[in-house]
Each structure stands twice: as structure tokens, then as C-alpha cells.
Write a structure and sequence with these properties.
The structure holds two protein chains of two kinds. Chain A is built from eight helices and no strands. Chain A is mostly helical. Chain B is 75% helix and 0% strand. Classes of the chains: A mainly alpha, B mainly alpha.
Amino acid sequence: MHLTGLDLLFWAAGFLENLGLLFVLWYRRRAKGFPFFTALITLVVIKTIVLYFVLHYGTKDWYFYTYWSLTVLDTALQLCVVYEIASRVFKPLDVWAEDVRASYAWLLGLSLCIAFGLTWLASPPARTWMQAFATRGNLFAAALQSELFVAMMALSIDARLPWKTHVAKIAQGLGAYSLLAVLIETGHSYFGVGRQLPAFLILSHVRMAAYLVCVNYWMINLWRDERPARIMTPEMREKMFTLQTLVEYDLQDLRSRKKL
Amino acid sequence: MNTHNVYFLIAIGIFVGALLLVAGYYYFQSRRRSSPANWEDLFAKLTWIDRNNIAEVALNLVDESGQPKAADDAGSMEPSQIWKLIGGLEGLEILERNSDVLIDLAFYVQQWYPEALAIAERLRLDARELKWHVARLKGAAQKGNLQVSFPFYAQRAVVSYYRMTRRLLSLYEAGNLSMLADLQRAL
């Protein structure tokens, strides 16, 4: 496979920036709070290294299967990140908020149906069934993710559930990227895939540039601290603890009554 | 371009357009809601209501701690009296709007004191309960059954609001916050 200077530049920049983001996640101790997001970025770094060596020392078939296997894993991890964000927003007290559970399940079902519908409508001009499957799969994943991010945003604002700064920044980056990915995958489904196609190359470069913007956005925002909490006096802490105990008892009572 | 591709591109256009519209609508709504930069701006969003009337209606059904009353005369208030004290459906709509402000006031504290999360969450659920009762009444009004449903749902909506105000005051009291006096006057 022939790579142009621009391809190599994007590849190197992507690799270095992902390493930088991993450094921020570990050094600023964000990794513990976002294990799936950290795993996703780690996978992207590993994917770049593995594909580099397979490209230089392996066969064309090896590259093809390695690329698509890692892409499937990448997509699965992206969906795990969606879950991670949802659980941060909709589980304020480590339990799914009672009032949003049904709406979230309903929106998830609707998102799956729409994503399936769009994938079914696509007819990518592919040479092999594997290419067609992969193109449709990417379109499905991008459509589903963008829907889920918008649904989460709408549902949380409607239910008045607040977003913590870091969760919001990860979601904004991934949401914007997946919406752009829908357009890119539409282009792939329309024009076809293959490095011999100029449209494919342009779309790939647009995707890489958008990803680099996202990584920079995450690096800057995850490096910054969230709004600092004030220190409570022992007396305040005691009063707050009493109040919290009463309210938690109320919440448990309310939940058990709803289960009856 | 074949017909299948045309359908596909139209579907994608509608899909992306709809997502952008929904995202834009909620983004601006959240900006509008969170726009008050300080506590005074948030507080100013509260609509004045007679707290004595609210307490009178609520305390007919629950005690001061918000627990259901065991006495025989609990829930004995006349529907016409409830209607007059809370100002009918318009009064309940004000409670509904105020409940959103009460949540914002609780989350304002929670931004600095993460320990207040449980209270803020409880207030949010109370507000959902209040809205549920008001929605039942609006539905009954459309069907012409308001007179029958009003005492039951309205009094429960007022109880939810009353509990919210007590919880918010306790939160500000526990936090020893300087804004407590203003809040006590308003609630």
C-alpha cells in the first residue's frame, strides 16, 4: 500500500497526540474515572503501532484482517464509552435515576431502529462482501452513536440532571466526531471504499483532521480541573451527613414503594 | 444516480438535520437555564407565592417533617378551599415553575459541596412527582373532570412542593450559607 506524505503526517500526528492524551489521562488521574475512555485511547495507540508493523512486514491480507478486527474492537469500546457517559449522568447516586430509565430504554430502541434503517438503505459500491459489510457497519455505529449522544443530552436537560465538566467534554467531543462520521460514512457508502478513489482519500483525511481536533480538545479540557469543591467545616459536614441520611432513607423508601 | 441512492441521501439529510435541530434546541435551552451567573439571578427567578397558604394545604395531609398524618382529619380540606388557597391551575403552574428554580438552587450548592448531591437528587425527584400530579390535572381539565380530580392531585402536588421547600431550607441551613435568610423569607 502506497502512503503519501500527508498520510504519514496524519498517522504520526495522531499517534503522538493520542500518546499525549494518554499521558494527560494518567498524569492528571482521570483514567480511574473513565476506564472505558482510557481503554479506547490505549487501543487507538496500540492499533497505530500494530498496523504500522503489519503494513511493513506483513501481507495485504494480514493488514486487511488486522485493520478490521481492531476497528470492530474500537467500535465496541466507543459504545462502552457511551455507556460510561450515560452512567455518569443518569446514575447520580450510583443507581439509575428512576424517572429516566424507561425513557432511556425507549430512546435506545428508537436509535437502534433508525440506525438499522439507514444501514439498510445504504448500498455501498464494494468489490467484496467484507468491504460492503464493513462500510455498512461503520455507518451503523456512527449513526447509533450520534443519536445516543443527542438523546442523552436531551434526556438529561429534560430531567434536569447536571453534567460534570469532564464528562460533558468527552461527550461533546465524541458526539461531534460521530455526527461528522455519519457524513463521512455516507460518502463512503455513496462513492465506495478503496485507496484508488480520490473521494475516499479526501474523506479519510477529513476524518483524521476532525479526530485530531477532538484529541486536542480532550487534552486541554481533561488537563484542566473541574470546579473546585469547598472545604466543609466539621459542623457543616455533620449537619449535611444527617440531612443526607434522612434523604437517602426517603429515597430507598420511595424506590421500594415503586417496586411494590 | 439511481433511485436507491437518492432515497439514501434524502434519509441521511433528514437524519442529520433532525439531530442538529434537536441538539441545537436543547443546547440553547440548557444555556438559557444555566445563564444566571450568580445566586441572586437564580433567586430572582422564583415567583412569589403565599407560603402560608402552601403550608396550610400541605399540613392538612402531612406533618411538618413531610410524613403522612395519621389523624382522622387528614385530607379533610374542602376542594373549594384548596382551589382558593393555591390559586387554581395557574397557582399550580407557578409551583411547577418554582420547583425547577428550587432544583437549580440545590444544584448551585452542590457545585461547591458535592456532599449535597443526595439532597439535590431528592429535590429533582420531588419536582418530577409534582409535575406528574399537575399533568394529571391538566389532562382532567381537558376531559372536563377537573372538579373530581382537583382535590386529590392538587393537594399532593402542594405536598411535594412543600417538602421541596423544607429540604432546600435544611440544605442551606446545614451548609450554613449566608443566603438562608433570603430563602427563608421567600419560601
